[in-house]
Specification:
Structural class: alpha+beta
CATH class of the domain at 655-843: Mainly Alpha
Helix content: 55-70%
CATH superfamily of the domain at 655-843: Transferase(Phosphotransferase) domain 1
Oligomer: single chain
Strand content: 5-15%
Radius of gyration: 55 Å
CATH architecture of the domain at 655-843: Orthogonal Bundle
Strand order of the largest sheet: 1-2-3-5-4
Shape: elongated
Number of helices: 44
Number of strands: 10
């Protein structure tokens, strides 16, 4: 029975507590405590009490009834209350008493609520802390302006964002930053990291969330200017992407400000070219120009300055960046803008702006100066036009020759009276008849004959060439050859009023030979077609008188040919020029044609071997047919008291070998100029089916004017002759093709290999192979890349050289003509990378 009073007392106390707490709950509504939550808590306590067996035994009926009646009367009123009080609020003392009671029961949450109702926030906070209700405790401390304590408790409660906000307000960004990051507020975290001075982490978060400009500024403060520039670049592009192209003035100004900042950072980061590009994209071309100049792209930079007529700024930029040499170009553009073209031309010339200088000189009709400028720029076509306009046809012709237009060059040479040069140009153009007739005018009958004899029957000029040959032979009293040519001409075309010259010349020959009757008959035929032709009437009258007086010479009777005294030696030797395995070379004077020649006496072995001598003379005739500016011309060959000789064109200059002995490596423009001219000579020789067999520096003469002349074609072989199948090794080992070493068929591709080795020698300072068994290396060993030996050799030139020296001849260029075409294409594609390519001077 002792338990019953206790259970009843407990039940009674709980009931009172429930009724007494209701006003406190009502007050706590302002603290955001739902009534139903509190009610649910009290019902839980009541349920627990009713579960007590003692209470169930003695108070089940009475207590249950009382509780139900009380609840039924209270619940509707509690539910209907919209936050207002449904009963008189308990006093502060009552709330404090209830708080202490709740605390004693260990109900710290309820204790905190009563303390809050009583206005004792410190006690409430402590109660919440004891109950580990850290969020409520933090709210209580925050209400008391104890922000640091509140932040700590919010942090303990796991409310990272509220804790971070308070820490940030307190200036404790070391605490705030990671809490912001933890709660996913990474931009706020970045701001805290920035205030904390952790720019690296802040920039990373800004960039992650596309706040590129802030990230860029932080990288700039870290000294990472290039990275900062990239971020500003992204910010600018993102702005353009979002806003589009058409924007207001304010937006455009904002973009330009961003572009300037981006460019500034790129420049500080050592990337002025990117700075220039950013500014130019935003239409800030003048500002971009300065950065282009800083990046070394003076052409673009100055072009932008000048396009906008910013002369002073361009000048200042040049001076700031130490480019004083470019001031002339700017001054030239300024003068041109003022209409002072002649002065502008001089400034452009001083600034080596050859093309602009040429244009200005042409405008003011200083054609000679314009031509000079075009030549320096490498535009020989325009240079030729200007030289012609200036009344300097010889220089116009030289420019056209460099350009590969020999026929046009010949026309200008003729205007200049340089007949021999005109003939040479026509010969290079393949006009053998034209060249031959010009050589006749130049008083070079031997040269004329050599060319005219190459005009074949398939040529439309064959008849004219035949007549011209007859005239030359007749002028030199070579009556037999002259007669043969005129008879052939007469057979090709019958005599007619406009075609009597061959018949007339045959009559002259007959008269000189003493056959007066035949001469008279022929002259009469001429007179029958064209009575006024030359002196035919007088000749006919004279011959009629002479025929009547002259004794008859019957057919078959002996006639005596009176010969003059034996001819003196034709060549007078002046001095020895050099000697080697191919013989001794002298400088000599042609006593008949009164011109200097190179007189080569071959080794005695050729004279002693009848077959070798026959082969040599035949090859000399073949070589004499090669008439080209880049091939030494052969005038004569034969035997004399000195032995077997060749008389050839005397070249004032030095061999390429002599030049390389003094300077092992030549500049690329000069090397390519020599190589290109050698190619031109070989292209002509190969077109005549002649292979050189021994291309090397010693067989290349360079004149004082820079013209390359290939020598010793006299020992080459005609491809379609049986001797082309050579089984013995000839040539120079340093430059010899693999197939030549192996005794296989030698062809134009062999010359190409040797020519490639020669270019290799010029640009690297040594032949491809110089050590060990050189012949073995030519057959089996790949040569070192020219670029490896000389880094200044461009990649494209390295590829050309290596292709010419392929072991497998089928992998070389199909011909030297194809090689030359590839070289010219590459030079055009890379104009300006190695300078102008010309023949170059030897001294």
């Amino acid at each position: 029975m002792g338990a019953a009073p206790a259970g009843a007392a407990r039940f009674s106390a709980l009931t009172w507590s429930l009724s007494a707490a209701l006003p406190a709950w009502a007050q706590s509504e302002g603290g955001e405590r739902p009534v139903l939550d509190e009610l649910r808590g009290r019902l839980t306590d009541l349920t627990a009490l009713l579960s007590d067996p003692t209470v169930q035994k003695y108070a089940a009926y009475v207590g249950g009834a009382v509780a139900l009646v009380w609840l039924l009367t209270r619940i509707p009123r509690l539910l209907a209350r919209g936050g207002g009080s449904v009963m008189a609020a308990p006093s502060k003392s009552e709330n404090l008493r209830e708080a202490r009671r709740a605390a004693r029961r260990g109900d710290h949450l309820q204790a905190g609520r009563f303390y809050e109702a009583a206005g004792d926030w410190a006690a409430a906070a402590e109660a919440y802390e004891r109950g580990r209700f850290f969020n409520d405790a933090g709210a209580a401390w925050e209400r008391m302006n104890q922000a640091a304590k509140a932040a700590r408790l919010y942090e303990q409660a796991g409310d990272a964002s509220r804790a971070a906000e308070i820490y940030a307000r307190l200036g404790n960004h070391a605490k705030a930053a990671p809490l912001y990051q933890k709660s996913g507020l990474e931009i706020k975290a970045a701001e805290s990291y920035e205030r904390l001075g952790d720019f690296e982490r802040a920039a990373e978060l800004y960039a992650k969330h596309e706040v590129f400009d802030r990230a860029g500024e932080l990288h700039s403060r870290l000294g990472q200017h290039a990275r900062a520039g990239e971020l500003f670049d992204r910010a600018l592009r993102w702005m353009v992407l979002r806003q589009g192209v058409e924007v207001s003035r304010d937006v455009a100004r904002a973009r330009q400000a961003l572009a300037h900042r981006c460019a500034e950072l790129y420049a500080k980061g050592g990337q002025p070219a990117r700075a220039a590009a950013v500014l130019r994209e935003q239409g800030l071309e003048v500002d971009a120009a300065e950065y282009y100049c800083q990046a070394g792209d003076w052409e673009t930079g100055l072009d932008l300055f000048l396009r906008h007529r910013q002369y002073e700024r361009a000048i200042a930029t040049c001076r700031t960046q130490g480019a004083e040499d470019r001031l002339h170009v700017i001054q030239g553009e300024r003068l041109l803008a003022d209409g002072r073209e002649r002065e502008a031309a001089r400034e452009f010339e001083a600034g080596t702006a050859w093309w602009r200088a040429a244009e200005m000189y042409e405008r003011v009709e200083e054609y000679a100066k314009a031509a000079e400028m075009y030549t320096r720029h490498g535009d020989d076509d325009r240079a030729a036009e200007m030289y012609a306009a200036a009344g300097q046809p010889a220089r116009a012709a030289a420019a056209l020759e460099r350009l590969g237009k020999p026929r046009d060059a010949a026309r200008y040479y003729q205007q200049a009276g340089a007949i021999a040069e005109a003939a040479r140009a026509l010969q290079a153009a393949g006009d053998l008849f034209g060249a031959g007739t010009l050589l006749i005018q130049a008083k070079d009958p031997d040269g004329a004959v050599a060319l005219l004899q190459q005009v074949g029957p398939e040529s439309e000029r064959y008849l004219e060439a035949t007549i011209a040959l007859g005239d030359v032979f007749l002028s030199r009293d070579l009556l037999g050859p002259a007669k043969e040519k005129f008879e052939k001409a007469a057979a090709l075309r019958p005599i007619a009023p406009d075609f009597v010259h061959p018949t007339y010349q045959l009559a002259v020959i007959s008269e000189r030979q003493g056959d007066l009757r035949r001469a008279l008959a022929l002259f009469e035929k001429v007179m029958a077609e064209q009575m006024t032709f030359k002196d035919v009437q007088g000749r006919v009258a004279s011959l009629r008188d002479r025929v009547g007086q002259a004794p008859q010479v019957l057919p078959g009777e002996d006639t005596t040919q009176v010969l003059g005294a034996p001819a003196r030696p034709r060549y007078r030797i002046s001095r020895e020029l050099g000697r080697g395995g191919m013989g001794i070379v002298y400088q000599a004077e042609d006593e008949i044609l009164l011109r200097p020649v190179a007189y080569k006496v071959l080794p005695d072995a050729i004279q002693r071997d009848a077959k070798a001598l026959e082969y040599f003379l035949r090859e000399a005739r073949i070589a004499a047919s090669l008439q080209h500016p880049n091939i030494v011309t052969i005038y004569d060959a034969g035997q004399s008291a000195d032995g077997v000789y060749i008389a050839m064109e005397y070249v004032e200059g030095r061999s390429l070998q002599q030049i390389l002995d003094e300077k092992p490596t030549l500049p690329l423009p000069r090397s390519l100029g020599i190589f290109r001219q050698a190619c031109l000579g070989l292209v002509h020789a190969h077109s005549q089916n002649v292979v050189h067999r021994d291309i090397k520096p010693a067989n290349m003469m360079i004149t004082s004017a820079g013209i390359v002349k290939l020598m010793d074609f006299g020992l080459a072989a005609l491809i379609n002759e049986a001797m082309a199948q050579v089984t013995s090794v000839r040539g120079t080992p340093f430059y010899m093709a693999p197939e030549q070493i192996l005794g296989e068929e030698i062809s134009a591709l062999s010359d190409q290999y040797s020519l490639g080795c020669t270019l290799y020698r010029m640009v690297t300072g040594r032949p491809p192979f110089v050590e060990g068994d050189v012949l073995y290396h030519h057959i089996h060993t790949e040569p070192a890349s020219p670029r490896d030996r000389n880094p200044q050799v461009p990649v494209w030139l390295d590829a050309i050289i290596q292709r010419t020296m392929m072991k497998d001849r089928t992998r070389r260029f199909p011909s030297v003509a194809a090689l030359l075409q590839e070289l010219d294409r590459s030079l055009a594609s890379h104009r300006g990378t190695i300078g102008p390519v010309a023949g170059g001077r030897t001294r």
